[in-house]
Amino acid sequence: MTTLDIRNARALDGTPVDVRVAQGRIVALGASLPATKDAAARRIDARGALLLPGLVESHTHLDKTVWGMPWYVNACGTRLVDRIDNERQWRAQSGHDAGAASLALARAFLAAGTTRLRTHVDIDTDAGLRHLDGVLATRDTLADTLDMQIVAFPQSGVLDRAGTLELLDAALSRGADVLGWLDPCAIDRDPKASLDAMFALADKHGCPVDIHLHEPGEMGVFTFELMLERIAALGMQGKVVVSHAFCLGELDAARAQALLARLAQAGVALVTTAPPSRTVPPLLACRRAGVALAGGNDGIRDTWTPYGSPDMLERAMMIGLRYNLRRDDELEQIALDCVTHQGAAVCGFEHYGLQVGARADLVLVDAVNAAQAVVTRAPRRWVVANGRVVVSDGVPA
Amino acid sequence: MTTLDIRNARALDGTPVDVRVAQGRIVALGASLPATKDAAARRIDARGALLLPGLVESHTHLDKTVWGMPWYVNACGTRLVDRIDNERQWRAQSGHDAGAASLALARAFLAAGTTRLRTHVDIDTDAGLRHLDGVLATRDTLADTLDMQIVAFPQSGVLDRAGTLELLDAALSRGADVLGWLDPCAIDRDPKASLDAMFALADKHGCPVDIHLHEPGEMGVFTFELMLERIAALGMQGKVVVSHAFCLGELDAARAQALLARLAQAGVALVTTAPPSRTVPPLLACRRAGVALAGGNDGIRDTWTPYGSPDMLERAMMIGLRYNLRRDDELEQIALDCVTHQGAAVCGFEHYGLQVGARADLVLVDAVNAAQAVVTRAPRRWVVANGRVVVSDGVPA
């Protein structure tokens, strides 16, 4: 039984397209579909709006945000440890509620067309599993629409803070999907012990890993090598994501190519925020090597950074700017791809895309093509998440 | 006689402030001013909106834009010469109207709070002075509100295209304020002859120079040295702006410091778009050396680039992202400064700022402080340009 009948949309190639949805899935997709006979079906005339697949956020921190709350005045130092310490202190003082914060931001993501999202949730010996519980509640609240993966993330490091490993273990038992980790050299100061602990815990839970690797230059490359050794030894191919990976942007082309070939073989995927002020993984070389690379915000308006937006088309624009993508074909096939298909591939979101049988995650925007959608961060006219209309004619439901 | 009486605004330091305007100037500014007795005065209750000075665009190309027109599909090559040739061909085919284009974009700038603007106008042997005439018409149309400087800019180079120098000469006689120029090595292929011609023409008209210097590394540094020699010889101190200056971001700290000291002595100022994909002048070192550095868009949605926005708060955000400015004080004193006071200083816009006697260029935004205004690109609640209200309670006049 058709529940949703969308007519007069336009596909990325400019041709007319209609979409039929039933039980949260796309059941028909094509030009000039015959009208549904289901009287109960909701009908949408897209009036020529451009059809995109649901947007994918591959790396954010819903639990940290002050989105929708009073402006946070940032007067923090500039080192990574300054920001980690500042946040832990602020949380203790402010009574920050990770449940309410994550729900407000997740709803903003949905309204902007993000239907799949991977969020890293702070697990540490001060907060315990409080942030996880808040974000689990948000996932429950939005379970009908937003497909959310939760990463148990030890923001303050593991080895130096006794009890953290046990908390991560508990978090993975309580509903986190992925084990997060942080700079084994620069933060944990003992890369062998750190990575051994990480892979042992992932192995125990049979879960994927997503490691935040800020380590620059040779230090970062060393960490990549240590990870590759362990992936091979443990058969963890295809289960490791490396976020940030600034060091890959510092290598000459030949060395980058050699390392990327090893990453492709190990099925290691990457996520970048495309930061304007840092080196970034070489996007085109990653594509040539077969290394998946997706885009994410990292934190959005939190004690770390005032920047970021739940609009993944804006993140695609930042990717376009960072990698100097100016042609329409580049904006569609690379920038937009990083926040759609690449995101789904990197995070492992299933039943993704614009084809029959996929989850009905649809975004209809006011743009003539993908390039315009990205650059203008085109207005979301309709958003359908898991078959449910969450934005209707520009108005969030 | 007071013409405009703004009450209940907030200054950047958070204190209440009222503003009185007469004959296009600020005549009083302070907390709790007594109510004006002029019955004809327009009264605005700012309801706590944050008061910023008029925003300044230090480098754009109004004449090139397709803003407000059908989407331009970019399928151009990636070299500088590809983009120059592509644009010239497109202009010849499309019948692009630089007058209509520049007016649409200039109005969008005004509506977003930009009250001072320097635009580079293409002068070449194909288009002649047609673009100049279009932009001069736009300047006339908006003369009551927008303070516009016009740069006669030889986008296709000078030495290789006979007749260009004479057209630049004619443009400066016809109303252009500033002589523009382009890569003396990389484009003109004869830096001595190119720079000699540039300085001779500027000297003849007694006008400032604004040179687009894309040349990387040692080539760019060489051009800087040649310019410094000529500035000293001709007494052109304080009359040269260098836009882009990517090469300054490639030098080690000691060499950058030495060159910046020479630029400061010669009164050379810089403009950056803060491009995420290129090296940029070291902003903090420029400040320490006393070299003014302002922000600009460069082209906005034209055949060169799909990016850019007439919103100078968005440009300030891009500056903040490129230079990794995260603290509220940095966003106010550096990022916002680049699109306000630094812009006025670099371009030489007079009577600028929030003080009695200055031109009444005022922007009232929905933000608690400058950092929030930049990061959220806060809604413009009221915009006053030269004493005239061009946005009223969020609605362009």
Question: Would you kindly provide a written description of the structure presented here, covering whatever features stand out?
Answer:
- Chain A is of the alpha/beta class and 397 residues long.
- Chain A folds into 2 domains: 3-53 and 352-396, Urease, subunit C, domain 1 (Roll), CATH 2.30.40; 55-347, Alpha-Beta Barrel (TIM Barrel), CATH 3.20.20.140.
- Helices cover 35% and strands 22% of the residues of chain A.
- Chain A has 12 helices and 17 strands.
- The first copy, chain A, has helices spanning 80-94, 98-111, 130-141, 164-174, 191-205, 217-234, 253-265, 283-289, 312-322, 328-338, 341-347, 370-375, and strands at residues 4-10, 16-22, 25-30, 42-45, 50-53, 55-60, 114-122, 147-153, 178-182, 209-213, 240-244, 269-272, 293-295, 362-365, 380-385, 388-392, 395-396.
- An 8-stranded parallel β-sheet of chain A has the order 6-7-8-9-10-11-12-13, with helices on both faces.
- Chain A binds chain B through residues 70-71, 73-76, 78, 274-278, 301, 304-307, 317-318, 320-324, 326-329, 331, 367-369, 371-372, 375, and chain B through 70-71, 73-76, 78, 274-278, 301, 304-307, 317-318, 320-324, 326-329, 331, 367-369, 371-372, 375.
- Chains A, B: GO terms for molecular function: hydrolase activity, acting on carbon-nitrogen (but not peptide) bonds, in cyclic amidines.
- Chains A, B: Residues 44-391 form the Amidohydrolase domain.
- Chains A, B: It comes from Pandoraea nosoerga.
- Chains A, B: This is Cytosine deaminase.
- Chains A, B: InterPro entries: Amidohydro_3, Metal-dep_hydrolase_composite, Metal_Hydrolase, Metallo-hydrolase_Enzymes.
